[in-house]
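queue> pop job 88
queue> type: inverse folding (structure -> sequence)
queue> payload:
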């Protein structure tokens, strides 16, 4: 019985780390035994920098590119509005241009108006009759 008791004496230890290791101390060897080279350290730093840039782009894409552009545009509009006069006048060109640039969603004439503006800008709205024409009630030139 004394032999049995001696065999398991170390089991009463409060922690398993205090048990003696029958094979000796554990030796931990590094898997990378050659010394670190300066080029390796620089290469690793470059790779981390590139990866950081890629992660930043992914985060920007995940947040939404068009939403970010809209937020920037709104911020720019607010900054512009802060610098303008508070009162608006009838002949305010900036306000007129802003109101004309607004597109109404349900406007059926919107696309035709855009085409008309493009034709007016290009100067080929309608072909004109270049010769003389007989006078009519409303003095309207004949068209093609």
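queue> result:
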């Amino acid at each position: 019985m004394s032999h049995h008791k001696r065999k398991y004496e170390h089991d009463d230890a409060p922690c398993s780390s205090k048990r003696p290791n029958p094979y000796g101390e554990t030796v931990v060897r590094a898997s990378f035994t050659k010394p670190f080279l300066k080029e390796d350290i620089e290469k690793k730093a470059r790779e981390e920098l590139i990866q950081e840039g890629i992660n930043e782009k992914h985060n920007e894409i995940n947040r939404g590119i068009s939403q970010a552009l809209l937020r920037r545009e709104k911020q720019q509009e607010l900054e512009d509005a802060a610098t303008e006069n508070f009162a608006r006048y009838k002949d305010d060109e900036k306000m007129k241009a802003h109101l004309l640039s607004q597109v109404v969603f349900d406007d059926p004439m919107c696309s035709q108006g855009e085409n008309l503006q493009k034709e007016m800008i290009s100067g080929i709205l309608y072909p004109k009759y270049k010769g003389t024409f007989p006078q009519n009630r409303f003095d309207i030139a004949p068209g093609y």
